[in-house]
Design goal:
Order of helices and strands: EHEHEHEHHEEHHHHEHEHEEH
Oligomer: single chain
Number of helices: 12
C-alpha cells in the first residue's frame, strides 16, 4: 500500500475566452489522460484520500485524485461522461455566485475584452502595458490578470468594468459558460463529490478575516441548500501561496471545512497540512504528455536540494 497521493486539477475542456485552447483536441486529450490514469494508477475520491491522510491509514499504491475548479458547463457535458466511462471519481469545486448568474467570470470577461478590442490608443492601464498590437493579446491578458489578482474583489470587479469600457470589445459579453444549480445537482446525482470554491471566487488573502469567514460560511450554506449536505472540502480560488493565509485557514476551519486544496505542486502524505493540500494543475489539450508536470516538479526539487548542499 502507498503513503502518498497525487491530486490533479483541471478547469475546463471546451474553450472559453480565457482558456482559449479546447474543443475536439482537448476532449480527446482529456480522455487519453483519464485512460492513462486508469491504466497506470489507482484513482480514488478526494474524501477518501483526505480521510486516509487524516487517520494515517494506507493509501492504494499510486493513488491519484481528479478535481475540477470553477464549474464550467463542460464539466457536466464533456468531462463527467468521460469520467463515468472510465470509472474515475472526481470532486468538482463550485462557486454559488457563478451557479446563480449567467455572467462570465471576471477572467473570461477580461480575455473577451482584450481579444475583441475595438478601441486602441491606450498603452498602459494601472501601469500595466496593454498595447496588444505590441505584446499580443495573450501577453496582455496575462499581465492584466496578474495585476487584477492583487486586488480585493470589489476593486477587481470595478477594474474589469473599466477595462471593458476602455477596450470597447466587439460582440456581446460571454455568458452561460458556467453550470447553473440544476446542472450542479445533475453532477452530484451522477455520484461526483461537490466541494466549495468560495461564494464569489474572491482571492481570499486579499479580503479581511471577517469577510473571509463570511464568504466561506455562506458558500457552504448555499451549496448544501442548493445541492445537498456534506460540502466540507474547499479549493482556494487561484490557490497559490499568496492566495491564502493563516486567517484563511482559520476561516476554513470555523466554516466547517475539513480540508482545503491549493494549486501548489507536490505530493500529499500524512505530514501535509490538511488545509494546504498540493495539486498539479493540468490542461486537457496536453494529453498524456501533460503528466510531465510531475517530472518537472521533481527536477526542481532536485536542483533545490543540490543548491542547498553546496552551502
Amino acid at each position: 500500500m502507498g503513503r502518498r497521493v497525487l491530486i490533479f486539477c483541471w478547469h475546463n475542456v471546451a474553450p472559453t475566452p480565457f482558456f482559449a485552447s479546447g474543443g475536439a483536441a482537448a476532449t480527446d486529450g482529456f480522455r487519453r489522460q483519464m485512460r492513462l490514469l486508469k491504466q497506470t494508477a489507482v484513482p480514488i475520491g478526494l474524501p477518501d484520500a483526505v480521510e486516509r491522510l487524516a487517520e494515517g491509514r494506507p493509501l492504494p499504491p499510486r493513488a491519484v485524485v481528479v478535481t475540477f475548479d470553477d464549474g464550467y458547463r463542460d464539466n457536466l457535458a464533456v468531462a463527467a461522461p468521460i469520467l463515468r466511462q472510465e470509472g474515475i471519481p472526481a470532486t468538482f469545486f463550485l462557486v454559488p455566485q457563478f451557479l446563480s448568474s449567467p455572467e462570465a467570470p471576471w477572467w473570461d470577461r477580461l480575455a473577451w475584452a482584450v481579444r475583441g478590442r475595438r478601441r486602441g490608443g491606450a498603452t498602459t492601464w494601472a501601469d500595466v502595458p496593454v498595447d496588444a498590437a505590441e505584446a499580443g493579446p495573450d501577453a496582455t491578458v496575462g499581465r492584466l490578470a496578474a495585476h487584477l489578482k492583487t486586488l480585493d474583489e470589489a476593486d477587481r470587479q470595478q477594474s474589469v468594468k473599466e477595462l471593458v469600457e476602455l477596450f470597447d470589445p466587439a460582440g456581446g459579453e460571454p455568458s452561460d459558460l458556467m453550470m447553473d444549480w440544476d446542472e450542479a445537482r445533475q453532477l452530484a446525482g451522477m455520484g461526483f463529490t461537490i466541494g466549495s470554491h468560495s461564494s464569489r471566487h474572491a482571492i481570499l488573502s486579499n479580503e479581511a478575516p471577517d469577510a473571509q469567514l463570511d464568504d466561506l460560511s455562506q458558500a457552504r450554506i448555499l451549496l448544501e441548500q442548493g445541492i445537498g449536505p456534506g460540502v466540507d472540502l474547499l479549493a482556494y480560488p487561484n490557490g497559490t501561496e499568496a492566495d491564502f493565509s493563516h486567517a484563511t485557514i482559520r476561516a476554513a476551519r470555523r466554516a466547517g471545512y475539513r480540508a482545503a486544496v491549493t494549486t501548489i505542486d507536490g505530493w500529499n502524505d500524512a505530514r501535509t497540512p490538511p488545509y494546504a493540500l498540493r495539486r498539479f494543475v493540468m490542461l486537457p489539450q496536453w494529453g498524456p504528455a501533460g503528466f510531465a508536470v510531475i517530472g518537472r516538479h521533481l527536477a526542481r526539487q532536485a536542483r533545490s536540494t543540490a543548491g542547498l548542499g553546496r552551502h
